[in-house]
Amino acid sequence: MVEVVQRWTARWADTDGGRLSRAQLEELVAGVARDAAAQAEAARDAALRRFSALYSASPTGIALADPNGEIVEANAALGAFLGYKTDDLRGRDLAGLGYGAKDRHALLDGLDEVDEAGSEPYRQRVRLAHADDVGTWADITLAVLPGDRPGAAYPVLMVLDANEVHSLQETLRHQSIHDPLTGLSNASRFNTLLEGALGPSARDQIALVYLDIDGFKVINDGLGAGVGDKVLRRIARRLREVFTSHDPLIARLSGDGFAVLLRGRLTAQEVVTQVQRALDELREPMYLDDHGIGVSASAGIVVRDVADGGPEDLLRAAELALHRAKAAGKAQWMLFDPDLDARDRARYRLGAEIGGALENGHFELVYQPMVKLGPSGGLAAVNAGLHWNHPEFGELGSEEFYPLADITGMTVQLGHWLLTESLAAAARWRERHGEAAPDICIRLPGRLAVDPELVGAVKELLDRYRLPAGALRLCTDSPSLHDPRGEVLESLSVLTDLGAKMVLAVTGSADLELIPRQGLKVRHIILTGPVVDALGDNPGAAAVRHLDQLVTRARELDLRVGADGVRTSTQAELLREHGVIAARGPFVTDSATGDEVDDLIERYAG
């Protein structure tokens, strides 16, 4: 334009001092206008050629539409992406390019948003309809171009291929919510869907099944982790084959732990039937790498209305049911029982309170004296045990809290308290009665018997109270000695080397024969259980004969024989006549407190 102005200015100036006529001036102005229009036309044509070249060569698919959304032009890239010739796209509705109803609605929403010129572009990922009647993922941008008259707006659709990006994102999403080994849902997705299944809009029933593979470590350690992984994949496949109804969600929660969630109208019997079938299927051998591998599983089952509690309650109930199934012998299912749960809650509450009760002095020693059977009388030993004086539940015996202490890890602390208080009592008796004082007899809890610090603790206590090791008797039984690692026997053997006396509870000949077979350093045996019970009122000849066999064999092994659970003086006399030298039980007293046992020792020592 500058060149046009300069050129025509020069022509106006070159008039040789003369004046231009009206016609001449009009000719000059018309020339200016023609020159300017020609230059503008040339620039517009050049811009159109550049736009057309860019439009045609662009790798981005582009469709130009009229104000009604009907395609008037489409470039080759869009045709190639959708599998159409560009001519086939002309005349189609922009929104009609969507593959499904959801995609078409997304395009319509976009057209509404960019209806006016100057609106922000609309971007979305949708599926577009391919000529092969499949959906193809695209990142679309909808915008408007200004029209040839004020207020007119022409939609333009720009399309980028998003199939690879979408596939990668879907792969990553799948990996984030699925177990990579089995392809089942992982714990994160399971918990999310469980919360949704118990949401406010949920109806009918819900069932949760926890499955745990019994002894899976044997497969992993024996055949290798590679075989173990193959077994887990087979297990996942069999679970999919069994659980096919009631909208199942199957997940792998841990190494060998699985969960199944069922929803809808269902009954406990329906769920139990499916679980039993799953356990049966898992028992069928799997042939992997020349190994025929059979597995068993334990299952905990909860079936309830969705309105009966939240996810935490459901998960806890399934876990408790699974624990009961395993405790009952594994390879079976167990249905959650609310009554049992209430009792378990009370038990676990006790377990949680053991530490505080020990610190606050709620435990005390109780004693059971063992009386010598014979004219000399006297107390041979006093058994010491623990009782818990619970402020709400009253007096609790050791059988009620030791199993809970094992669960909470308090057994060793309780055992050390028992040892300390018992040896302190024995030292007091020795100080008062000298050699007439009885030995103290303690049955060590299993967890304490394998504690690596036990021997050192016993030796320190004996030194502290100036007690000879022979004043301590340690009672055990056959099941304890069958500890597969031999730790109980090892601890007891070291303590007997220090001078403590090992006492073995005997219920029959098999227990007695453990002594020579394993070379046990046993000094005393205690007949207990059916051996003594059979010697009640009017004992039969077989019971007496059995007693004589045990006593005879004990004498051969140079053992002293006592008896536990003796109810009457008549029974005690019968035992004495057949070689038993000491006894404890109701015929003396069921149990005695510290003061009561002090009185007994005083009386018998006198």
From TrEMBL:
Name all GGDEF domain ranges: 204-338
Pfam families, A to Z: EAL (PF00563), GGDEF (PF00990), PAS (PF00989)
The EAL domain, residue ranges: 347-605
> What SUPFAM superfamilies does the record point to?
EAL domain-like, Nucleotide cyclase, PYP-like sensor domain (PAS domain)
An example GO BP is: regulation of DNA-templated transcription
Where the record annotates domain PAS, the positions are 47-118
The UniProt entry, under PANTHER family, shows: BIOFILM ARCHITECTURE MAINTENANCE PROTEIN MBAA, DIGUANYLATE CYCLASE DGCP
Q: Report what the protein is called.
A: Diguanylate cyclase
Which organism was this protein described from?
Amycolatopsis rhizosphaerae
